[in-house]
Amino acid sequence: MNYLPWAVVAFLSYSMVAPLMRVATSGTNPIPSNVAALVANVVLVVATFAVITVSGEGLVTYLDDPKIGYVVAAGFCLAVGILSYYRALSMGPVSLVAPVFAMFFVASSAVGIVALDEPVTARKLAGIALAAVAVVLVAGE
Fold this sequence. Notes:
By secondary structure, the chain is mainly alpha-helical. The chain has helices at 3-14, 17-25, 33-55, 68-91, 94-101, 103-115, 122-139. It has seven helices and no strands. Helix 2 (17-25) crosses helix 4.
């Protein structure tokens, strides 16, 4: 279960993205959401490059891998999702935008089950359904 600490770090870190972006992209003298996305993602690229360098993973080695198309497609989806998310945060309250955005957990789980043949259990289905209900309850006004 080495993935669990990383998942917790991701959860804690990502919990601050929406509030920080909302403050940066709204109110007096807001930074445009696309500019905020660019700056935030430059930080991501620099940090990722540092991790790749320190870990010794070879970037160029993977550029001709047959799976690179999946990475490019994921990057496209990430770009559309993040740009849209930051735009929504610049226009609406975090308490509504973030839960709607969080529906990607439900959708990703469904794709994992349907397209990637991940195991389905009653408990998993109940969790996905409850997550959807939670998002609806949190986002409702």
